[in-house]
């Protein structure tokens, strides 16, 4: 008998396998007969009806020892040959069934598609070298590799896996197990689109397990491609911090209740959102009303997206604007939280915020001096500014088209009137304030006068004041000063006195530039000069001869001049000696006069020219010398003896000694 059909393993019988019996009977008759009948008894009643066979070379599979309780069988064969036509004696053969191969393997069942199934054998029980191995994985794949092995199935389903081991006796033993390959879930997701960068994207899993399997998805693992992840939710949201022009590969890995996983990757493209930014326009300043703060949004960038088409401002004081570069007036100082939201043509927006400090304004103020038309008005700055700042610029507008950058300038106005003076100050924070005040430029008096018809230089002239204050002003003239252009001092007249005067010019000049200066009660002064031309007068003058004694004539010599006028035609002398009677006067040009006493005497000469002009000249007072009193004494003497004469004359109380 053999354990294999090729009869390579003689005398071997394998448990649970066909044993191949070969008839080796022969005939002993002469001539030999032909055997025609065979009767086999396999001593295996549990295999009935297969316990017997009539084939010449039958096969028989013995009942396993586990069932029969024995591994040895007495197989008998009877044969018949045609010559004798009788059976042979039963020939027993003891067939021992080899110990069955303990083929077995374990595996990880319910394996997910595209995962490896590991088939494991125990090398102590099944030493790999002791057997010939044949694995049949039930999917068309086989392997003769010994020991543990793995296989990956290409489709979902139940597969019968068979391991067949053959030992050196040609005995084979197979073990089969059914492997279940379960489906992976179908991973998929959607997300809100279009999505603007900077806004949260809503992701929604649409993963499922294919029918007819009842597995359920129990795990969701998200990788957003930027290092961000989410776990355990089918509907996460995610906001990207950095814009990527190529998008982000978002991967969702879902896992079923039996541990099968599948991933899906989708490139998520975002629409580039603008980058909002703004500033207070350089060169402008942040100050409270009425100064506007000028905002500049040109720092905002399209960032690769569409053009920016809307600007939404929140100025931090419950007001806003939709202008691209607005200006805004703040009512109060302090920090303001300003926000700008810009939106592009794709509907994507971004918001920027800055805290800006609104500064207090300086307080403009000034004073001014009283000023008159044509005289400087002094302006004095009295502005103040907040602590830590200084006033850095001034701009005065004097209301007449003239300006000044000085701190406390002076300005001369013409004409008089009320002017609206504006002072604009700027402090070191760039904050400015303007104040406008009226200033009154007081009028100068309108000076005018006339005078009487001109006559001789020595004749008095009447001057009549015609000065006044222009209409529309309430001031009045305070005083007048007449200057007659001769050696006389100016004549000042205070109101309410009459300013009209009468004046006789001193000297011989015929031309006098008479100046009238008029001053108002506000101190405004004006003057006018008029030329007064007189007829030349003679210049009376005379000399006196050496003063002599009382009773002796004194010679007076006329030294008068015509003064540029007509010839002197009359002389009138007044000797100041009324006690002399009629001789006290004289019409002679060069008279003499005997003075009646010692004096003092003042002699006056009045001369008259052919023009009728008169000039008078008086001498300084002088006195006459008194006559001395002559006297002498003599001594008594005899004839022939000298007589001594002693002068006893005495001088008068006026005068000196004798001559």
Structural class: mainly beta
- Let me know the number of strands: 53
C-alpha end-to-end distance = 220 Å
**Binned strand content:** 35-45%
- Binned, the helix content reads under 10%
Strand order of the largest sheet: 1-7-6-3-4
- Total number of helical segments? 1
> What is the CA-based Rg, rounded?
78 Å
Describe this structure in words.
- This protein is 1% helix and 42% strand.
- With 659 residues, the protein is mainly beta.
- Strands 1-7-6-3-4 form a five-stranded mixed beta sheet, with no helix packed on it. Strands 9-15-14-11-12 form a five-stranded mixed beta sheet, with no helix packed on it. A five-stranded mixed beta sheet has the order 31-37-36-33-34, with no helix packed on it.
- The radius of gyration is 78 Å and the shape is rod-shaped.
- Mean pLDDT is 91; it is low at 655-659.
- The longest helix has 4 residues, at 65-68.
- The chain contains one helix and 53 strands.
Please outline what is shown here:
The chain is an all-beta fold.
What are the main properties of this structure?
mainly beta; five-stranded mixed beta sheet; 659 residues; 1 helix; single chain; 42% strand; disordered C terminus
Chart the SSEs and their pairings:
Elements: E1 13-14, E2 18-20, E3 35-41, E4 52-53, E5 59-61, H1 65-68, E6 72-81, E7 91-98, E8 106-107, E9 111-112, E10 116-120, E11 132-136, E12 142-143, E13 149-152, E14 157-166, E15 172-182, E16 189-191, E17 201-205, E18 217-223, E19 229-231, E20 237-238, E21 248-256, E22 261-268, E23 279-280, E24 293-296, E25 308-314, E26 320-321, E27 327-328, E28 334-344, E29 349-358, E30 366-368, E31 371-372, E32 376-381, E33 391-397, E34 403-404, E35 410-412, E36 417-427, E37 432-442, E38 449-451, E39 461-465, E40 477-483, E41 491-494, E42 501-503, E43 511-520, E44 525-533, E45 542-544, E46 553-558, E47 568-574, E48 585-586, E49 592-594, E50 604-609, E51 614-618, E52 632-634, E53 645-647
Parallel strand pairs: 1-7, 9-15, 31-37
Antiparallel strand pairs: 2-5, 3-4, 3-6, 6-7, 8-10, 10-13, 11-12, 11-14, 14-15, 16-17, 17-20, 18-19, 18-21, 21-22, 23-24, 24-27, 25-26, 25-28, 28-29, 30-32, 32-35, 33-34, 33-36, 36-37, 38-39, 39-42, 40-41, 40-43, 43-44, 45-46, 46-49, 47-48, 47-50, 50-51, 52-53
